[in-house]
Design a protein that fits this description.
Length: about 130
Protein backbone atom coordinates (compact mmCIF):
# COMPACT_ATOMS: atom_id res chain seq x y z
CA UNK A 1 0.00 0.00 0.00
CA UNK A 2 1.15 3.54 -0.57
CA UNK A 3 0.45 6.63 1.53
CA UNK A 4 -1.41 9.25 -0.48
CA UNK A 5 -1.50 12.96 0.23
CA UNK A 6 -5.12 12.60 1.36
CA UNK A 7 -3.95 10.21 4.12
CA UNK A 8 -1.80 12.86 5.79
CA UNK A 9 -2.56 15.61 8.27
CA UNK A 10 -1.33 19.20 8.41
CA UNK A 11 2.00 17.96 9.78
CA UNK A 12 2.63 15.81 6.71
CA UNK A 13 2.27 12.48 8.53
CA UNK A 14 -0.47 9.88 8.26
CA UNK A 15 -3.49 10.97 10.28
CA UNK A 16 -3.98 8.49 13.13
CA UNK A 17 -7.45 7.28 12.01
CA UNK A 18 -6.15 6.34 8.57
CA UNK A 19 -4.13 3.47 10.00
CA UNK A 20 -7.51 1.82 10.68
CA UNK A 21 -8.28 2.09 6.95
CA UNK A 22 -4.97 0.44 6.05
CA UNK A 23 -5.70 -2.42 8.46
CA UNK A 24 -9.22 -2.87 7.05
CA UNK A 25 -7.97 -2.94 3.47
CA UNK A 26 -5.41 -5.59 4.37
CA UNK A 27 -8.08 -7.79 6.02
CA UNK A 28 -10.29 -7.41 2.95
CA UNK A 29 -7.41 -8.42 0.65
CA UNK A 30 -6.55 -11.33 2.96
CA UNK A 31 -10.15 -12.54 2.78
CA UNK A 32 -10.13 -12.11 -1.01
CA UNK A 33 -6.90 -14.16 -1.16
CA UNK A 34 -8.77 -16.95 0.68
CA UNK A 35 -11.43 -16.86 -2.03
CA UNK A 36 -14.13 -14.84 -0.27
CA UNK A 37 -15.53 -11.47 -1.22
CA UNK A 38 -17.49 -9.50 1.37
CA UNK A 39 -20.51 -9.08 -0.91
CA UNK A 40 -20.43 -12.83 -1.66
CA UNK A 41 -20.50 -13.63 2.07
CA UNK A 42 -23.62 -11.52 2.47
CA UNK A 43 -25.33 -12.84 -0.65
CA UNK A 44 -24.42 -16.53 -0.44
CA UNK A 45 -24.15 -17.08 3.31
CA UNK A 46 -26.15 -14.22 4.83
CA UNK A 47 -23.27 -13.15 7.07
CA UNK A 48 -21.10 -10.11 7.62
CA UNK A 49 -17.87 -9.47 9.49
CA UNK A 50 -18.18 -6.64 12.02
CA UNK A 51 -15.35 -5.24 14.09
CA UNK A 52 -16.16 -5.51 17.78
CA UNK A 53 -12.84 -4.49 19.27
CA UNK A 54 -9.78 -2.59 18.10
CA UNK A 55 -6.53 -1.91 19.94
CA UNK A 56 -3.82 0.11 18.24
CA UNK A 57 -0.27 0.95 19.26
CA UNK A 58 1.53 3.59 17.24
CA UNK A 59 5.31 3.25 17.06
CA UNK A 60 6.51 5.58 14.29
CA UNK A 61 4.88 7.93 11.81
CA UNK A 62 4.24 7.11 8.18
CA UNK A 63 4.63 9.97 5.73
CA UNK A 64 3.36 10.95 2.31
CA UNK A 65 4.41 8.55 -0.45
CA UNK A 66 5.75 5.88 1.93
CA UNK A 67 5.20 2.32 0.80
CA UNK A 68 3.63 0.18 3.52
CA UNK A 69 3.34 -3.54 4.18
CA UNK A 70 0.37 -4.61 6.28
CA UNK A 71 0.25 -8.09 7.78
CA UNK A 72 -2.78 -10.14 8.82
CA UNK A 73 -2.55 -13.14 11.13
CA UNK A 74 -5.25 -14.99 13.02
CA UNK A 75 -4.52 -14.91 16.73
CA UNK A 76 -7.73 -16.53 18.09
CA UNK A 77 -10.51 -18.27 16.20
CA UNK A 78 -13.76 -18.92 18.02
CA UNK A 79 -17.16 -20.21 16.89
CA UNK A 80 -18.45 -16.79 15.79
CA UNK A 81 -15.48 -14.44 16.07
CA UNK A 82 -11.82 -14.14 15.37
CA UNK A 83 -9.02 -11.93 16.58
CA UNK A 84 -6.34 -10.72 14.21
CA UNK A 85 -2.83 -9.57 14.98
CA UNK A 86 -1.82 -6.96 12.42
CA UNK A 87 1.23 -4.81 11.86
CA UNK A 88 2.03 -1.98 9.50
CA UNK A 89 5.66 -1.64 8.42
CA UNK A 90 7.35 0.94 6.26
CA UNK A 91 9.15 -0.59 3.30
CA UNK A 92 11.62 2.27 3.62
CA UNK A 93 13.60 3.06 6.77
CA UNK A 94 14.71 -0.50 7.40
CA UNK A 95 11.24 -2.01 7.39
CA UNK A 96 10.40 -0.12 10.60
CA UNK A 97 7.24 -1.11 12.47
CA UNK A 98 4.82 1.81 12.41
CA UNK A 99 1.72 0.39 14.03
CA UNK A 100 0.58 -2.83 15.65
CA UNK A 101 -3.04 -3.79 16.20
CA UNK A 102 -5.31 -6.40 17.65
CA UNK A 103 -8.66 -6.50 15.88
CA UNK A 104 -11.60 -8.70 16.84
CA UNK A 105 -14.35 -9.29 14.28
CA UNK A 106 -17.59 -11.17 14.77
CA UNK A 107 -19.59 -13.13 12.25
CA UNK A 108 -23.16 -11.81 12.31
CA UNK A 109 -26.40 -12.44 10.45
CA UNK A 110 -26.63 -9.83 7.68
CA UNK A 111 -30.18 -8.85 8.61
CA UNK A 112 -30.48 -9.22 12.38
CA UNK A 113 -26.80 -8.49 13.18
CA UNK A 114 -26.94 -11.27 15.77
CA UNK A 115 -23.82 -13.43 16.15
CA UNK A 116 -23.75 -16.49 13.89
CA UNK A 117 -21.31 -19.39 13.72
CA UNK A 118 -18.98 -19.26 10.76
CA UNK A 119 -20.44 -21.04 7.74
CA UNK A 120 -18.67 -24.40 7.34
CA UNK A 121 -16.76 -23.53 4.18
CA UNK A 122 -15.44 -20.33 5.77
CA UNK A 123 -14.63 -22.04 9.08
CA UNK A 124 -12.69 -24.75 7.25
CA UNK A 125 -10.60 -22.17 5.42
CA UNK A 126 -10.01 -20.12 8.58
CA UNK A 127 -8.89 -23.21 10.49
CA UNK A 128 -6.38 -24.02 7.74
CA UNK A 129 -4.62 -20.66 8.18
Amino acid sequence: MRVYYEDTDAGGVVYHANYVKFLERARTEWLRHLGFEQDQLRRDFGVLFVVTSLKLDYHRAARFNDELAVSVQIRHLLRASLTFAQTIHSLAAGHARLCSAEVTAACVDSESFKPQPWPRVIAAELHSQ
